[in-house]
């Protein structure tokens, strides 16, 4: 695909799962501990609607080209007290006083949309004229010459360099997912409140600092190698991390971009690049009770009902409220696993979509959702691809999609044929939204045996004997309707 040739920057300014595991350790916080305060993190202040930004009449122009979770950015902007005007034509970009481009998804898909709509040229003009601009994640990568993602694919060509994939040969897992620290390279203004605090990254590709682009680089981050975490030149800013998912410190980045004059003359605090921080992930099993209400529940060997005469679904609280409490107590991510029996029509599960929408209004950390994300045909014979299903969840506030049974079936088929068809839900969704947006949930069940020679699979010695005194166990991987798959 042909890229967009943009002239060089002409401003005279001298400034500028159930989870996919990463190198960081992960602590999974199960919902039965929801009354405990997380001691390792300072509590956050949860507000329904904040007014800490400028006047309510202040308008921010948002470029949403239709891929990924942009709802979180919208909610963060509104949380800070600003109104949003969407880009509908290239002229809207040229007329924007402040433009935010929360690029989500794959590089090639984004460039294809921007080029065909004429927005790529308008973006170049906006940036060349040194108009206030903030790119987020892919919104940073697209500024470079090209990307290796499904490519090579030409980018906007404003910043020298090629966006390449992380090197996994050095033991660092790809994608880079988690909270990492920044090494501040120069006065960046929007990063002044970060210091040594961590921000949230989720990406498989990155741009590398070089002599050709050093005048743009305002901070770097280390994940195996140093990569560009943010750029700044004049009024043009872009960050590889997600401020809308980085809690209070991320909101400060957005606030400083939207209203830089209100921040005083505070100098940036030098950050220290480090390994990924440990993450606390709140995992909420959600399903409908007998009254039709969504509740957070907990199963005992997949049985979520109380052992009482009424035999009601175990109710630990409301999903939105519990997610907000976890965020307030310092959780780094929240995961919803929908175990409701709606599998014949996932897109009809409006309550779960509403849970995502309401949660994303006040919870500014990553949200993952899983359950029923697959190809299906409704009662009227209408076919829906897994991509269509996932897209609705992304639009409702999800940052990552968790796939369970469908991933097992895809893996089984690949082991059998050694062929990637491109038709599996994993391949369909990752092609449009990027690999980092799809995680695999493995649901293992322990099977006790007397000794390691009783089965052909790998066994472990258990610290507590099984119901019949068994000292060893192996694991089955369960899928739809709890049909067992072997998991060695």
From TrEMBL:
UniProt organism field: Gossypium raimondii (Peruvian cotton)
Pathway info: Amino-acid biosynthesis; L-histidine biosynthesis; L-histidine from 5-phospho-alpha-D-ribose 1-diphosphate: step 5/9
Protein name: Glutamine amidotransferase domain-containing protein
Active-site residue numbers: 137, 242, 244, 285, 443
Superkingdom in the source lineage: Eukaryota
Pfam families xref list: GATase, His_biosynth
InterPro entries attached to this UniProt entry: Aldolase_TIM, Class_I_gatase-like, GATASE, His_biosynth, IGPS_HisHF, Imidazole-glycPsynth_HisH, RibuloseP-bd_barrel
GO molecular function: glutaminase activity; imidazoleglycerol-phosphate synthase activity; lyase activity
The keyword Amino-acid biosynthesis is annotated on this UniProt entry: yes
Location of the Glutamine amidotransferase domain: 62-256
């Amino acid at each position: 695909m042909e890229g967009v040739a943009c002239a060089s920057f002409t401003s005279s300014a001298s400034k500028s799962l159930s989870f996919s595991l990463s190198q960081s350790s992960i602590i999974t916080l199960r919902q039965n501990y929801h009354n405990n305060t997380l001691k390792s993190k300072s509590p956050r202040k949860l507000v329904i609607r904040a007014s800490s930004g400028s006047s309510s009449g202040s308008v921010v122009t948002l470029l949403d080209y239709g891929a990924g979770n942009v709802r979180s950015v919208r909610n963060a902007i509104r949380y800070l007290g600003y109104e949003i005007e969407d880009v509908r034509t290239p002229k809207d970009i040229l007329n924007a006083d402040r433009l935010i481009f929360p690029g989500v998804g794959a590089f090639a898909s984004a460039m294809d949309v921007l080029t065909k709509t004429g927005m790529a040229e308008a973006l170049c003009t906006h940036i060349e004229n040194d108009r206030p601009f903030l790119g987020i994640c892919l919104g940073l990568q697209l500024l470079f010459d090209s990307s290796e993602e499904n490519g090579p694919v030409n980018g906007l060509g404003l910043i020298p360099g090629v966006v390449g994939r992380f090197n996994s040969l050095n033991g660092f897992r790809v994608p880079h997912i988690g909270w990492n620290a920044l090494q501040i390279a120069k006065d960046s203004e929007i990063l002044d409140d970060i210091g040594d605090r961590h921000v949230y990254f989720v990406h498989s590709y990155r741009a590398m600092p070089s002599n050709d682009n050093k005048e743009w680089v305002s901070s770097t981050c280390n994940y195996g190698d140093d990569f560009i975490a943010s750029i700044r030149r004049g009024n043009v800013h872009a960050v590889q991390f997600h401020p809308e998912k980085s809690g209070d410190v991320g909101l400060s980045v957005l606030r400083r971009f939207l209203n830089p004059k209100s921040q005083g003359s505070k100098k940036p605090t030098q950050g220290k690049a480090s390994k990924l921080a440990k993450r606390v992930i709140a995992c909420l099993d959600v399903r409908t009770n007998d009254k039709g209400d969504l509740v957070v529940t907990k199963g005992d060997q997949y049985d979520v009902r109380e052992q009482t005469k009424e035999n009601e679904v175990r109710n630990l609280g409301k999903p939105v409220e519990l997610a907000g409490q976890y965020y307030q107590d310092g959780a780094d991510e929240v995961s919803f696993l929908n175990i409701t029996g709606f599998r014949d029509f996932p897109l009809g599960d409006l309550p779960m979509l509403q849970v995502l929408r309401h949660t994303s209004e006040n919870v500014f950390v990553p949200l993952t959702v899983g359950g029923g994300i697959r190809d299906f045909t409704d009662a009227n014979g209408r076919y829906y691809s897994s991509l269509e299903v996932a897209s609705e969840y992304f639009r409702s506030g999800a940052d990552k999609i968790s796939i369970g049974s469908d991933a097992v079936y895809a893996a089984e088929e690949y082991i059998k044929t050694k062929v990637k068809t491109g038709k599996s839900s994993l391949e369909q969704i990752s092609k449009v939204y990027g690999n980092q947006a799809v995680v695999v949930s493995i649901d293992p069940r322990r099977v006790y045996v007397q000794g390691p020679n009783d089965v052909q699979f790998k066994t472990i010695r258990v610290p507590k004997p099984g119901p019949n005194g068994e000292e060893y166990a192996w694991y089955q991987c369960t899928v739809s309707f709890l049909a067992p798959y072997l998991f060695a």
